[in-house]
Amino acid sequence: MKSLIYTGLLILISQFSFSQVDNYQKNKLASETEDALYKKALEEDPNSAKPHWEHANRMAEFTFNAYKNAWKFYNKALEIDSTNAKIYEDYGDYLFNKYDAIDEAKVIYEKGLAYSSDGKSLNGKIKTVNEVIEKRDENTRLRSFGTTLTKEIKHDYLYSNITNFDSLKLIVTDKKSKYFYQNLLDKFMNDKSLNEYETYLLLIGFTQTDDYNPYNYNDLDNLYEIANSGEYVDAINKGKELLKTNPLNPTLSQELMYCYRKTGNTKMAVKYKNRIQQVFNAMIYTGDGTCEKPYVTFWIKEEYNFAQYIGLSPTGQYSTAMCSGGMADKLEVYNQETKEKELIHFNIMPIFKKTMGK
């Protein structure tokens, strides 16, 4: 049986490898054929925008990476013929359909409109883009959980105490402790007051449960899709089920907040907004984001939401380092006030310990 499985795997791997090579050869041939066609058109009509324009249109239809360079040739075409509305329209279509660059597509469409004879086609596309932008902006607004100016909360605990996870684990798993996890969770779920330290211990307690999985966002991604499809009641019901095993995750609270806002239930929306902020405030309580005192984090994906909460915009650049004696994430962010890039450091030891089964 093992030999059959092994043989089957070899066949699958072999087929995949041949498929990869085959696709590479096809793409290479298509690219070379297009380059030759472009070169020939330039030789025949070197001073016209047409060769660049048509080359860009054909490249935009590619399903492999070569399509990413089509914008260069639209720009070349417009350098020669800057009043051709059709070039602008094709360029806008490329940005909208291939890059999902909605705002950029709108700018290009609007430039083309100034040179259009009737404007019918471009006005229709501008209307579509505006509708997409309006929906996107509404979703952004309704999913917003606010920001804070506070990036550090002063207290008397040493950072070494705040991050002594083995000691904290004993506190939250002791049924006689006032910080026993289940007691803290009951208060949190019933919206009773917890300070930042108590909320932090609540999060530590959650890491000791079987339900804590810092990497699994499959259910949350599915919830997002349901909410985005407009099935808000279904999304709320699914969200309530997920709360039973994932009660503290900010993204889950964010989706419930969004759905309650869409259904006009302001009270419930505020409830989940407060929960998001409560978890993030507990993270602020743990450090200051430097490598000396990185914020303690419990989900890698929430680092991006957390950055937005403290008024910073993640650039997408991410790496790891050793900080304060443990593993840490380094998230690059843009500070709108200083107009500079910065790094936020996150202590990921709770995640690491869970992953390693410690």
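Second entry:
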Amino acid sequence: MNDQNSCKVIIPVFYPGKIVVNCINSIPKNFEIFILDNGLDDYNLENEIKKLNREITIYKVGDVGVAQSFNFALSKITSEFFFITQPDVTIKKNCIENLIKSAKVYKDAAILSPVIYEEGLYSEFDFYNLKITKEKKISKNQKKKEKNREIKEPVNDFNVDAINSTALLVKTAIIKEVGGWDSKFYTYLEDIDISLRVRQLGYKIIKIVNSKADHLGFSSHKIENKESIDRSRNWHFSWSSVYFASKHYDKWFFYKILIKKMLKYLLKIFVNIILFRKKKLLSNYLRLNACVSFLKNKKSYYRPKKIK
């Protein structure tokens, strides 16, 4: 089977602007692309994409979030693999092809990911630590990220605990086996959650050094939507963090984490009121509001306002 037939490319978007064109242009023309549009950006997005003369299918999935968008793709795709990336990512030459070759070598890998750079420099967010116990439960003693740690660019393929959805190749059958993404996550930590769950089934996540991608970071949306997206980011990261903890830790440890978070946000709210720091006040209010929302109904309801 040719690479283009064995693998489809998935790009979820939410009012991405023209930056998605750079992403598409970095993908070899022999790969079919599926755009999963969460917004109502009909005119601009479709017209920009039509100019490219590429084999691209746009699905208007509605404002359902990242995890549910991925599950939509999973329900449509019959290829052996699919490659997920984001509008603010450009992939380097042979990125997808080398991932597919490696996937056939690493039989026990569920997810393979290129090495991620940010504006040409190796990214400190290339992967994440997420230790699990012998019983396949998430460890309560996660190693904290060291400040000012040396970031070493890898020279060989290596196993990782977890990665985000910046760019990754997944084996379709294994992702279906694990049940797909948890659609309760609107955005943030759905990727860490599925990383954990594939490892709990005994599969691996591997970074492939001869596969590379460049990520701009926080640039996947139109610049005029920055304020609304920043508010959404604060709310959803907080909500997803709480939901992740409730899902993977025992009840008492979860409440310990939740109470600690809420007290921290509450303290920061008071401090920022005193110091008249409106932006930080709003950020911490949104984070606290997300925690309260989870306790009340466990639904991730918040949506960005004034999107253009």
